[in-house]
Amino acid sequence: MVVFSCAGCAAELTVPVSPVALPVHAHNRYGHALLPPLMRAGSYAVDPEPFGPPWRPWNETEGEARRLFAPVGLLSHGPAGSIVVAPGDTRGTVLIPERCDGYCYGVDGRDGPNLACARCGLEVGSRIDDCSRWQEVRLLPDSVRFEPAGEPPADDWTVEGVPPVEPSGAWNPYWEAAVGDALAHLFAVSGGGTIAVQDGLVADVFGPALALPSSSSPHRALALAGPGEPDADDIALVPRHPVTGRPWAHSGATDVVPLAAEVWTWLAFGQDPVTAPASGVMPVGVLRDDPLPKHPSGPFSPARDVFLHTLARLPAVRQPWLRAIYDRVMAGGPVSRVV
Fold this sequence. Notes:
Structural class: alpha/beta
């Protein structure tokens, strides 16, 4: 664990925090409401890309230098490598009043760093908690110091699965973001052909986005693979390591599609304990109906912001058929393969 401190006066700015991969929903805006923190308590992530103002119009030459292969609207010229923590894990900071503008309910960092060190006044980062934005604090990499804790272990894939449906009946936004990211990778390796998806929850969340007619003969097949699962032959849907962010590398498949570990774990092993078959009290195979099983209130829709963010960074988007999908989704169309 590490503690981030002010580069100006060495005052501690966070509680002890441990490194994790940047959550996939960091690039997704959601609804018209106050959202919970992006980061779990006691964790931090580093965003390698520029973040925040100033913003400039898309420039193809500059975009490709940043490994952006499709237009993304405005380009951030803020600092790269910001450290992302939960607001509750910060200490010794104060807001800069003249930079606390936002769109709706809170602040969004549009005017530049809005947090300063309470001891010396150095600008150290931005708090973001506005409508539709996940709550986060982004510390400026040049304004903080910490002692590296060494390379985190990459052999522990233990992670708790996240259920797909919230108590309200809405699809979990974390699932919408994770599937949006995975779909971009899936399209990139598909070559434009049809893909067979295994029945069950995998088909529920990936099938509608693929929008394949039932008469199509699949050219390729997508299957779960990863720790505790058998290898895949064609396209493997594998977990990302929760700390390093690197995908499972032992699937034996031709291509891999990474998926957030919490969502992959639920797809592979998770089962809502409310709807688990009961033995000893009820016959095996009978599902409890008190309370009723959680079912989504509508069809699944991947997060388009995350889909576009990921696809723009994959060289495959240069292919005409995939660029057509990107442009259509960018213009407000649905995430599907129907061009």
